[in-house]
Amino acid sequence: FKLYVNKKNYSNEFGAKVYKIARDEQGNRLTYMKITGGSLKVKEVIKDEKINQIRLYSGKKYEVVSEVESGEVCAVLGLEHTKPGQGLGIENDSDIPVLEPILSYKLILPEHCDKNGMLKKMKELEEEEPKLNVVWNEITKEIQVQIMGEVQIDVLKHMINERFGIEVS
User: Fold this and answer.
1) How far apart are CA 53 and CA 86, in angstroms?
2) What is the mean pLDDT of the chain?
3) Among 105, 98, 85, 118, which residue's Cα sits nearest to residue 152?
4) Model pTM greater than 0.90?
């Protein structure tokens, strides 16, 4: 029995492509990436940030490993300034069409909701959703969201309620 698949040749130099930012159940920031060259080890420094943990996910479960090789997809903890489409090492950033949000809305919070805490939570969502732009308006002391369209309002309200248990309008 022969398998007729060509094995991809990867560079020996480290390269990776970031494709997603998320948070785990404890709120840790996860950078999902595919290793496209060389390998990546725990405690290595990339762009002045140290890799604290490498996870290989299978559904919701994961295995913690000390190293990943070319061709593997993983999630890493420790990178706080990555974004989807970003290239690391020998990889270039992706040519993602730049779509700017054109509608700006005030985020109306429940009466006793902490604005600073909510701003931090909204910034987490902004990392995960590149089409969302969160702004603190210093003059009016309010959180504003810039989005692409009306449908995104309902999606955003649902995400905030589901993720943080807060009803906003």
Assistant:
1) 19
2) 89
3) 105
4) no
